[in-house]
Amino acid sequence: MEKTGIQKPAADPIAFIILWFVYQVLYSLILRYSYPNIPAKIRNTLPNRLAGLIPAFLKGVVILSIVLTVVLSLPVPPKLKSEISGSFLGSGFVNNSATVENFINKVVGGDLKESLTFITVPAQNEQIIEPSEKVDLKFTTDETTVDISSEDKMFQWVNEERAKASVKPLVIDEKLVAVARAHSKDMFNRGFFAHENPDGQSPFDRMEKGGVTFEVAGENIAYAPTVELAHNGLMRSPGHRKNILNPDFGHVGYGIIDAGIYGKMFSQEFTD
After folding, report:
1. I need a surface site. Which of 13, 117, 142, 165 has the fewest CB within 10 A?
2. Looking at 69-73, 199-203, 250-254, which range is the least confident one?
């Protein structure tokens, strides 16, 4: 564990909160000095007052979405994260915020790699091997558990996505599951986030070491507080979506490791 600096799970949300606070101050100053210049006859009319409720409501929705999203991205108790993401209103507000993040990402260009609630790196496919990217998590932890429930959900959702695309369903391969879980756990244990581990092993090296035989293979990884955000983030990312819907793949292994306040690590291993 690093003894100096702000850890990765808290750094981005804290920076976001600071920027939001600055925005609120500027917004308030603009209103304070511009509002008195509006003629009283216009300010006091009923239509004007009613119209003022609309931006106030929308602002409230945005603020609540951001607050819940920031809470999910901070190192807070898992029970609180579960209650937020599991509630009807909470999940709706967070998904709304994630959609806005995705829209901004498309505007600025590039694949979705990092947001307040989702981190990934370019997908790996043995047919098209991208340059390996690495994210330093700024923390390590060995207090982890396997999240079997989330693995089951991801398996179901991925096959539902493949069904929509008229692609054959994937079948669980226990050897791939072992490879996926080991990699997700290793990333938490050694504080890195990448397809290639610190020993220089690629996903395909790890598959071969795990006794997996294949002609084609691929790997997706993600770091997020909930399985919903991880799945949605991967599906919004073209490279990861391509792996998920690849008709050449027939077997899969999911490794979802829960590190409590630090969130969850996701590995998807695909083979023919």
Report:
1. 142
2. 69-73
3-state secondary structure of 104: helix
Tokens of 15: 């920076």
Say if residue 124 is exposed, middle or buried (CB neighbours under 10 Å; 0-12, 13-18, 19+): buried
| Partner residues linked to 268 by β-bridges | 220, 254
Q: pLDDT tens, 176-189?
A: 999 999 999 999 99
Q: What pLDDT digit, counting tens, does each position of 160-213 carry?
A: 999 999 999 999 999 999 999 999 999 999 999 999 999 999 999 999 999 999
Locate 219 and state its tokens.
């790997």
**Distance of alpha carbon 205 from alpha carbon 150, whole angstroms:** 26
Separation CA 7–CA 30 (nearest Å)? 35
Q: Which residue has the higher pLDDT, 244 or 107?
A: 244
pLDDT tens, residue by residue, 28-54: 777 677 666 767 666 667 666 665 666
Q: Are the beta carbons of 167 and 242 closer than 8 angstroms?
A: no
Domains of the chain in start order, with CATH, are: 8-117 (no CATH), 135-271 (3.40.33.10)
CA count, 13 A, side-chain hemisphere, 113: 12
- Dihedral Cα 130, 135, 140, 141, nearest 10 deg: -60
Residue closest to 262 by CA, chosen among 107, 72, 14, 48: 72
Structure tokens at 229: 């955000």
